[in-house]
């Protein structure tokens, strides 16, 4: 997708959707890029923003990343950002940015996969714990009759 001075390349993976953003993000195209990213977030699937090939990131682009990260957090959607030189230039100055940064797309995918697996275990854990109790209650009823 062409977004003025930037391009978005979409890669669907089994674990997440990867959006690679190339080119430049500035005040002229930040809102357009953020809107496109929000469209993918509506899929309710984990999202990885790959900024490794980004040449320039303006302050408006960082603000959009911070806003998108907060939206994902509130919606309980997993999101990760693979940093590149353009983002590192800004985050060196603002080290406490709070963005979920990954070293690579593979690392981001592994993190999301691990978090998803842990969540599944957490959700299915209580259900498994009740099964033995149910069996014991059934046996006690059988003894009582």
Automatic annotation (TrEMBL):
<dbReference type="Pfam" id="PF01740">
    <property type="entry name" value="STAS"/>
</dbReference>
<feature type="domain" description="STAS">
    <location>
        <begin position="6"/>
        <end position="99"/>
    </location>
</feature>
<feature type="region of interest" description="Disordered">
    <location>
        <begin position="123"/>
        <end position="145"/>
    </location>
</feature>
<feature type="compositionally biased region" description="Basic and acidic residues">
    <location>
        <begin position="128"/>
        <end position="138"/>
    </location>
</feature>
<dbReference type="InterPro" id="IPR002645">
    <property type="entry name" value="STAS_dom"/>
</dbReference>
<dbReference type="InterPro" id="IPR036513">
    <property type="entry name" value="STAS_dom_sf"/>
</dbReference>
<protein>
    <submittedName>
        <fullName>Sulfate transporter</fullName>
    </submittedName>
</protein>
């Amino acid at each position: 997708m062409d977004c003025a001075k930037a391009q978005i390349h979409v890669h669907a993976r089994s674990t997440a959707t990867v959006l690679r953003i190339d080119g430049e993000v500035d005040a002229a195209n930040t809102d357009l890029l953020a809107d496109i990213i929000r469209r993918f977030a509506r899929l309710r699937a984990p999202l990885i923003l790959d900024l490794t090939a980004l040449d320039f990131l303006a302050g408006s682009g960082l603000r959009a990343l911070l806003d998108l990260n907060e939206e994902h957090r509130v919606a309980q959607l997993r999101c990760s950002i693979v940093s590149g030189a353009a983002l590192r230039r800004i985050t060196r100055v603002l080290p406490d940015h709070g963005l979920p940064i990954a070293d690579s797309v593979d690392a981001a995918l592994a993190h999301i996969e691990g978090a998803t697996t842990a969540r599944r275990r957490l959700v299915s854990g209580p259900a498994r714990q009740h099964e033995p109790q149910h069996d014991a209650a059934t046996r006690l009823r059988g003894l009582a009759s």
